[in-house]
Amino acid sequence: MQVLKLGGSVITVKDQPMTADDDNIRRLCEEVKAAWPTPLVIVHGGGSFGHPVAKKYGIAEGFTSERQVLGFTRTHQAMVALNTIIVDTLLDLGVPTISLSPSTFIMTRDGRIEDINLEIVGRLAVKGILPVTYGDAVVDRTKGFSILSGDQLAVRLATGLGASRLLFGVDVDGVYTSNPKLVPEARVIESLPLDKLDGYIKIGEALTTDVTGGMLGKVSEAKTAVNAGIEVFIGNASKAGVILKALRGEAVKGTILKR
Ligand code: ADP
Q: pTM of the prediction?
């Protein structure tokens, strides 16, 4: 079993609201098809679909006013729209794909997953069906509602389903010594031991509207998977062939997180 997280920075145009990156989506779906059949679960981020709406209504902060209720539903629906594009593309390519909406099988407490029906996801995947789920606005037991990041969800699915590998596809070549979009001389760290995380490198947030944390959030979440013995890879899904090779277990440029 493998879990593939496709970053919002790859599948959407991050600075244009509700704009999918159709070329990247098509190519990535073709790469998934080329690696098919393989027990796989895909999780995708929100990019310019979920994040701007969630931010506008303060959904990640939980329920504080009635005006957020419409924002909660709008955030979810923006994610449904993006998810539909991906699922339809995979179906067009003949990959048996099913959309799974986190708000219907997951609840959080203080923003962390508390209940999740892993059995549904696992049984679909072993039957040769590809579940495609996403970061979503979900019901939260203490805050009323919250934003569940695709990164947290991908890690929870990988640990809960006993995945051997968790792949994060982002718009940069892996984890760098500093944010490569701000520091041109930053270098990719090919093998990153968890104990080097604090102080050794400068991992930061994304530059665009992102309510769930950029590379820092991703690596922090991924620690749990690494500690569970899962191979965690972060690589550039904007570049052709990287995800295909990673899915096939072939060597490719990127970062492998180590215990
Ligand atoms: P996604 O939305 O694709 O899941 P994010 O955009 O949230 O991913 O996070 C990736 C971004 O994190 C990169 O585009 C980069 O701007 C930023 N970042 C900050 N620090 C680092 C770092 N040390 N190495 C790589 N990327 C970094």
A: 0.95
Q: What one-letter code names the amino acid at 132?
A: V
Ligand 1 atom nearest to CA at 175: 24
- Domains of the chain and any CATH numbers: 2-258 (3.40.1160.10)
Contact 187, 177 (CB under 8 A): yes
Ligand 1 in contact with 157 (CB < 6 A)? no
Tens of pLDDT, residue by residue over 39-86, are: 999 999 999 999 999 999 999 999 999 999 999 999 999 999 999 999
Q: If you measure from the C-alpha of residue 214 to the centroid of ligand 1, how many angstroms do you get, rounded to a whole number?
A: 5
Q: Using alpha carbons, list the distances in angstroms from residue 173 to 144, 187, 232, 255.
A: 37, 9, 14, 8
218 versus 81: the higher-pLDDT residue is 81
